[in-house]
Sequence to fold (593 residues):
Amino acid sequence: MGSPGIAFTQHVLTKMKISSRNREQKFSAAAKAEAGPSLSPRTTGIVAVALAAIVFAIYSSALNFQFVLDDHRFVGDPRIQWPGHVWEYFTSYVWAQVAGGPASFYRPLFVLWLRLNFILSGESPWGWHLLSIMKHLTVAALLALLVWKLLRDRVAALLAGTLFALHPAQVESVAWVTVPDPVMSAAILGSLLLYLKYSEPSSADQSVIGRSLKKSRRRRPAENSSLWIAGSAALCLAALLTKETAIVLPAIIFAVTLTAPPAKASNEDMAKARNEALRLRAVSALRWTLPFLGATGIYLLLRVSALNGQLSPRTQHLPWSTLLLSWPATLWFYVKVLLWPVQPRAFADPTIADSFSLHAVLLPGLGVLCAATVLTAVCGWAWQKARHDLSQPEAVRIQLALLIGSLLLVLPLLLTLNLNSLDPGDFLHGRYTYLPLAGLMLVLSAAYHLAGRGRILLLCAVGLLAAAFAGFTVQQEAMWKDDLTIFTVAHQYAPHNQPVARNLTKAHVQAALELDEEGQCDQAMPIFEQAIEQFPEDWFAWAGRGECLFKLGDLPKAEQSLRRASELSHEPRVTEEWQQVRAQMGLPSTPPR
Fold:
């Protein structure tokens, strides 16, 4: 005689089976009436290749760009240029090779990726830029696969991948070859795909539609083995070792598991997930998230060891009141990056607010609130429509797409509010939206999938939007051809950003040094003088001025400039040049104190 619990479960499943059949018949009729555009697998492949070619063509001008910003340091890093340093990637922080470099970033797999770039491309910017474009296309393809996995909609998958690839905010992460966000995003999306593969049957078994209790206890097929979740956890660790933002992934996995428990869970676990309190469901979800928590624990131990016992060293010490007042404008900046990318936002003026004001706090806060309200309304509408109009398996997939998309969109942006761990005066960058844009595209693709007859109109709108994105991308990409152009454009849009102003001056000094090498010191000298006037503590300008004065025969002023450059930089090369000038003047190599 069966137990009362099993009898009750069988009774519930029978009722759910009848209800589900009615819903499936209803959805089948609605689907015929609201059928949107669809593509065959072959056509999908052809369109995907064509779209990838278009994206590549749009970014192809970057193949002729120079190394910029941090690229110079990484390409010249002996740990990347020579073999035998891989172990150092995992035992030290990113800037360990730079004297006085900040001990704040622990990204060993990102540095390993740079080593691979150097092996394949050497010091050729063309090769590095080619690999950067290819990794961006890879992330777009993984996003399209994730959309297909969840929605079973080829058109939605192509739209999501295309808009993601063409969004102008991605220019910074593609044209700047040493940005870790694309590599991290590829690992995160790959981890989610493997986890969904592992838990795929549970989405269909949420209501155990059309199955008896005996059939639901059959052994899981081989393709759903624990290797999928092991691979997913391994990619989670890889993402963490690429960039700190990946710390959001275990939380996303927990939310996914809470919504749709994995297939490996027993029938009793699934029954509890359906019928018991949220607390018990959370405990069950936590148990299935343990591999990802374990990966996070390994990462944190390695990070603390590499950062000399610190988890997240501070770069500035803003009080909590300042942080809270600065958050609305900070978030509003990223809302504009996501929704209104009509101008370059690789750099921006600081949003630090020490006191409450209408323009610095209240208005940005209202803007963020409006954006959050729209996102909530779209997700709520799509969630309820999927629940009422679709079969249970399809509804669960839609809900997972909305859940994963929302969390990928919101959680990484919340991490940008930790201003005390970011660069003082220069903590707003459009590249921080790289992963959130994948989340936004997931949400939008789910809304498109549920739009019914409106999908044709939306498809036309998306086409126009993609064309606009392509135009803005081409326009904004041009600023990344070299350092001088980058900071000239950035200074136009962020005139109060001191790091941008300082780097613009350095770029001018670098251009003046090239004039110096060409024997045009008369043209270089005014640039050095202006740089010293703006930033008197910049040794680079003092050194360039000293070299030019030496070539012009003014040894006393050359000695003074090189002496100041040596005092500021402590660079052996600069000190040696200074001592050579003193020797030529008949002075002792070291002046008396």
